[in-house]
C-alpha cells in the first residue's frame, strides 16, 4: 500500500502509470480502469523466494590486483551472485541534511516499456531493473554510488554510470563492466538516436563510445 505520492511516470506507450510512494513502494496502474496491475517494494534483503531473480555484483579481481605495482588501481569485474540472502548496503545520510526524506533518485522506463530501472537514495550503490511483464528483477550492486542511467533509444540496453573510469552495460543476457580511459571519470552519457554510440561525459572531458551488438 502506498504511503503518500513521491512521483509518477508514464510508460512510453502511455498505457501504464507508475506511482512511487514514500515507503519504497512502486505501483503500476492501468490507464483505463486505474486499478493496480503490479507493485514492487524495494526490499533491502534479496531473498530466495524468486529463483529467476538475478544479482550482479561488482567485485575486485584479485588476479589483476595481485601485483603490488597496481594495487592502488583497483581492477573490478561484475559477477552473477547465487548465494541468498543478500543484504543491500545502506548509504550514509548527509550529516547536514536532517529534514529531507530519502527518495527514488533515478527512475526510467526502457524505450519498449518492458523494463523499469530505478535507484533509491537509501541504497546509492544498488540498481533495480524490473521486468514489468514477468515481474522478475535484476539487481546491480556496485562499489561506487550510481550517478546516472541511460536506456538505449532503440534496444532494451541500459548504461549505468558510477563516477569511475568504467561503464556498466545491462542487457537481457546479463551485465558487463567496460573499462574505458583511466584519465576520465565518467558521470553521465547521452545516446545517439540510432542507439549505436553514446557521448560519455566527465567533469571536464567527453568521449564517444561505439556500442558493439547493442541488441
From TrEMBL:
It comes from Lasius niger (Black garden ant). This is Wd repeat-containing protein wrap73-like protein. InterPro entries: Centrosome-WD_assoc (IPR052778), WD40/YVTN_repeat-like_dom_sf (IPR015943), WD40_repeat_dom_sf (IPR036322). It comes from the Eukaryota. GO terms for cellular component: microtubule organizing center; MWP complex. Gene3D superfamilies: YVTN repeat-like/Quinoprotein amine dehydrogenase (2.130.10.10).
Amino acid at each position: 500500500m502506498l504511503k503518500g505520492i513521491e512521483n509518477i511516470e508514464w510508460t512510453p506507450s502511455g498505457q501504464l502509470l507508475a506511482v512511487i510512494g514514500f515507503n519504497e513502494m512502486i505501483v503500476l496502474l492501468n490507464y483505463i480502469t486505474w486499478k493496480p496491475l503490479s507493485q514492487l517494494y524495494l526490499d533491502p534483503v534479496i531473498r530466495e523466494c524468486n529463483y529467476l531473480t538475478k544479482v550482479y555484483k561488482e567485485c575486485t579481481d584479485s588476479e589483476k590486483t595481485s601485483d603490488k605495482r597496481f594495487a592502488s588501481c583497483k581492477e573490478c569485474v561484475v559477477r552473477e551472485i547465487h548465494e541468498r540472502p543478500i543484504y543491500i548496503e545502506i548509504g550514509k545520510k548527509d550529516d547536514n541534511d536532517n529534514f529531507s526524506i530519502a527518495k527514488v533518485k533515478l527512475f526510467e522506463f526502457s524505450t519498449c516499456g518492458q523494463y523499469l530501472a530505478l535507484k533509491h537514495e537509501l541504497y546509492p550503490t544498488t540498481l533495480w531493473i524490473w521486468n514489468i511483464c514477468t515481474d522478475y528483477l535484476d539487481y546491480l550492486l556496485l562499489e561506487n554510488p550510481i550517478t546516472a542511467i541511460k536506456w538505449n533509444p532503440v534496444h532494451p540496453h541500459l548504461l549505468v554510470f558510477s563516477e569511475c573510469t568504467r561503464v556498466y552495460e545491462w542487457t537481457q543476457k546479463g551485465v558487463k563492466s567496460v573499462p574505458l580511459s583511466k584519465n576520465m571519470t565518467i558521470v553521465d552519457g547521452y545516446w545517439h538516436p540510432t542507439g549505436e554510440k553514446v557521448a560519455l561525459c566527465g567533469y571536464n572531458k567527453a568521449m564517444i563510445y561505439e556500442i558493439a551488438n547493442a541488441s
